[in-house]
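Quick log. Single chain, no ligands specified.
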Amino acid sequence: MTTPSSGPEAVGLGDEQKSFETAAVMVDRRGVVIGWSPEAEQLLGYSPQEVLGLSIDTLTAQAQGQEPAAWLTQQPASQCRRDLTFRHRYGRLLRAAVVRHRLADTAAGPAFLLFLTDAEDSRTRQTQQALLHGITTQSPVGMTIYGPDLRVAWANAAARQELPGPFTDYLGRSEDELYPGSQVLSANYPTTVTQLMSRVLSTGQTVVGLHYRGRPPSDPDHEHVWSLSYYRLQDDEGRPLGVCEESVDVTDLHQAQRRLALLNEASVLIGSTLDLDRTVQELAEVLVPQVADFAAIDLLGDVLDGREPDARCPGRNDDMRRAVHRSVREDLPEAAVTPGQPVGYPEGSPQRHCLATGHPVLNAVLDLSSPWMLQDGMRSTLLRTIGIHSHLVVPLRARGITMGVATLMRWRTPEAFASDDLLLVEELAARAAVCIDNARRYTREHLSALTLQRSLLPHELQAHMGVEAAYRYLPADTEAGVGGDWFDVLPLSCARVGLVVGDVVGHGIHAAATMGRLRTAVHTLADIDLPPDELLSHLDDLVQRLAEEADAAHPTGVEGVVGASCLYCIYDPVTRRATCARAGHPPPALAHPDKAVEFPDIPAGPPLGLGGMPFESAEVDVPDGCVLALYTDGLFTAADGDADTGLERISFALAHPDRPLEEICDTIERSLLPERSPDDVAFLVARPRPIAAENVATFSLPFDPASVGQARKLTSDRLSQWLLDDLSFSVELIVSELVTNAIRHAQAPVELRLIRTENRLICAVSDHSSTSPHMRRARLGDEGGRGLFLVAQFALRWGTRSTEDGKVIWAELSLPRPGSGPPHP
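-> predicted structure:
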């Protein structure tokens, strides 16, 4: 340390106290620097001549009242460490850890020796030491170091758990000696780990995620799978010092992946046809050899003959026959009977118990002295001769009925069946049982009816922002489960919702087939956002064509469609109005919370299929708290056929619309419908969810190109109010393109509307032109034509719809979930 050449307060420090990483500074009782080491000059940049004689406070950037000099003279001696911020000679700030030592008092008073260390470096060293300690003693990842001779030199605590006894017994041994007979599972690598480490040592190439199978010394009776990584250790000059191995036991994960892969394979293989023999053969092919060394599938005679098994006598064994068996050996040494023969299991056998109870039987260790084995000498001799040691029997059950059993045995595989194997085989057996039952029971016509039932009506109505809905569908043909009535809740543009209920004349599968075609047509027409009256006109044309097709196919009697009715309403949650049109259908019911149920006066158009008559729409105000009900005529004519009485009962059932919708549906079904309705019945109740005024912003724009910038500014301001600044870029781009198109290609006036729903932001631009835009691919030299392409890229969906005096072009974006960050375009 450099000190003043003269003066009573100067104290010299010997070179033995110099530290390459720590700077030493000496100050007197007033905090004046009286000693300055070369390390201090290296750390802070000041030479001794610049700082000796200055107060230590002049070198720091501490807040007032926290100066180092005050700390030296006023703090108790026990507080000997503190972090201080120093100013480097070149202006930057340096956070240093300062350790204070009080020296022996001199004639001038006490003096203090300060040791300064970069605080960040100090924390880094502490973290590194803690990391090394954790890797050595606490890490769950096994780490082993092999020397240049590729023999064990060191291992952490996790790696030593696989090495029983003193670790010194394993020093100097190779990996192949520790795990004899092990196998590398990953492709494109040497077959032994020693060869692999030799490559890593010579090339320095790192190996990550190598799967390795073997038996550890701590558990030699069971195979394990590890995920291994290797990298070369080398000194500062690049000379190799050895190889480090990191290992993680992934046995459970490997087995789970194998079981999952087998289930995926089984889902493809089992049930590829409706042939019973082929289905049971596919099950056996999946079980052997992946799960068992031998598998036998035994089925009841009723199942093999295509009859319904008797659920009252599940324990019958006299008619159970062998369907198929499979072994790892082609000569089938385990088979006691041939396919097609009765199996004849004795009383008390696992097969009989499984058949009677429907529960699996797992014998992880097979006891050849069991009473049932003593009764069956032939099977007992086979099992003893072959050396079968583990036995598993699972039922084949479908629709609550046990149709047979699957027997699995192991003799070549050393591991016994475990609970994980039982779960896997139960899943495979359950899938196979369904396929077996389908092959036996279902006819082509019934399968077609069930397919129609699943596809023609929605299983679950989507949760729309515009309405909350509930429904009931009760076909008259309960055996087939389908009819000619239908309903739907359709999402439309600008947060609007389409509500539709229809009724095809007739019942059963023919009416259901026509209903499916009409429902598909309604989906298509609603997707292009047609008004209700125009939609019914197009639907009327379709019904006429279907009637003509039915007449041509059945000239002596129409078995297809002869007519249909429909009610279609569009509810707008912004205006709180519903626009409705009907074709030979009952009007909707509007239940008010404070007055009687209302049946709005919607113009009654002719039933679909008559042609030649126009349809008219009418608007209905839907106040807050109301419930809108749509239904088919089977609802109010089911009881006694009187329409007026039916409407009165509907009014009664819809009273108190503040109840849950499911409760309202239950009341309608209970009070209006008999136990077996002579006609198909469908009804839909919807509680509108209007959009609050603060979630809607409407702006009228001048018909001028400058309005584009104004629209962007208005949009940005409103998004800031809604705390949706993350969407500003995408929304402003969309608004800019839509407003630009309206001004360039449409007619005034132009209006911009922004709608915020629960999970969507909607931008809509309206104008007085009926020309609809379309997206096209712009050529290289074109100056325009890319606007709608950009809108399509940034919007979740977009489109256009016609209005009475023009059109509306709209685009929707997803709102970011809380904490999810800005959405991606």
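Residues 3-20, 780-784, 821-825 have pLDDT under 50 and may be disordered.
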